[in-house]
Structures are given as C-alpha cells and as structure tokens.
Input
Amino acid sequence: MRASVAAASVLLLAGCSVSLPTPVSTTAAPTPKATSAPAPEQTGRAPAQTFDVDTRQLRLSRGADRPLPVTIWYPDAGAGRFPVILFSHGLTGRPADYAPLLEHWASAGFVVAAPAYPHTSRGVARVDALDVINQPADATYVLTEVLKLDRRSGDALRGRLATDRLAAAGHSAGGITTIGLFSVARDERLDAGVVLSGSGLGMGLGFTGPPAPLLFVHGQRDSVVSYASGKAAYDSVPWPKALLTLPDGDHGQSLLREGNRAFDVVADSTLDFWRWSLYGDADAKRRLPEDATSAGLGRLDDQL
Output
C-alpha cells in the first residue's frame, strides 16, 4: 500500500495524469453551469498606504483526522474592512514558507488565512499526496470559520473583514486545491483566484458557478507541474482571466522567495490583480501588463 501511494505521489508531483479517489467528504453543493459572462464591474480604490502586518494562529479541525491549524496575516489598522484571501500551500509545504508573498499582500490591505493541511504539509506523520482531493472542502471550512471572527466579541478581527469580498490562491498542490474551489468543489462565495504553478489534476477543468476572474502564474521551465498542464487549466476558464508566463521560471523555488527579480514580478502582478478584483481598483488593472513584463522576465496573456 505504501509503495502504491508513493508511486501516485510521484505522479502528482510530475503533473501526470492519474486517477484520484473520490473525496472522503465534501461540503460543496451542486452548482449551476459556468457562464462566460464577464464578472461584475466594481468601482473603488485599494488603500494607498502600506500597513504594518500582524500574525495570529487559529486552531481548527474538520474532524478527528483533519486538524487545520491556520496562520492569519492581517493589516495592523485601527479601522476599515479588508478582503479575505484563503491561501493553500504546496505538497510538503507550510504557510510560513510563503510568508514574504503573503505579508506583501497583507501590507497592502488584505487578510490572508493559510491552513496547514492535515496530510500534505511538512511535519505530518505521513504525507499522502492523494489527499489533495479533499483539500477544497478543508479550504471552504477554514474560510467559513475565519469569517466568523468578524462577529466574535473581543476578537482583533471583529468588524475588520470584508465578508463579501473573498478569494482563494495557492501554489502547486495548493494551486490544484484552488482550481478545485472553482470547479468540482465550487465555493460560490469566492470572487477571484490566483493559481501559482498549478493544474487541474484530480479536480478536472469543469469550472462552474458565477464568473470569478482568475490569474495563473507559471514558469515554462517548471519540472514538477508542467507548464502545458497549467496552461490547459487556464485555457478552460470561461471567465475573465490572465496568464503570467515566466519563460525562465521554475516550479516556484525562485518565484516565491525574496531577493530575486522574479519574486518582484509575481508579487507586484498578484497584488495589483487583488487590488482590481477585490477592491475594484481600475488603475491597478491598468498596471498589470507593466507589472508582468517588468525587467523583461514575463509576458501576460490578458483576457480580464
């Protein structure tokens, strides 16, 4: 059994086609067929200032076998409501691995909640790559519990969450999880999403529910999740969408870490995408092509 799971894990990491089991449980209800109608236009402006960022831990559990400790990054501000982004880590990752990127988002006026998944995060007793199929239901549960903090007496986030402006993002296996939230396990509360080095493996490409803009980011030299599989997912999206391609980009080892120009391209592009999709900031949308092509490191297929 261990050998078969290990082999399947290799296939998952390689981005190959493999049949995954039916989820052990799901909270997703049947959803209407996807529509290619444009997402509703917003008119607004994202915060111009840079906020100090606080972090906190939230201990959640979706059953005895599914503990979900959550790290939350949020703006240290006295007033105002901020959109919420649910972030999913990659296989054997942890939320802290993505701290530079998630802090960058939070400092611009977003609350970022990142669970450590029970069977795919670093430090668990046994990593089970096939459990990714159950993570969209985990993510939906975590988002529901985080939003409850907006009404919890005495909580630091009481009255601070824009519960009507929600998004999901993820890297690698977390990108697969994110695609699941817009397809097989659609969470219709979500208004936008970012998929970093992800594909539709195990989730399919049947995007459903109300239109939600999606930004894909993928390196063409990705040797773990192939660029072709990521582009196939992108091509299947029937809504406003964009694909940031990094011709020299790998699976994310350089893209998601500070100290290199590729990180700046990804950080700036995703941030302006959030400012547009969650605040309705039209200036941010106009900046996206420049963000993506700065330093000559990327190109943008823009269908937003």
Helices lie at 2-14, 99-107, 135-147, 173-181, 227-236, 261-279, 282-293. Residues 261-279 form the longest helix (19 residues).
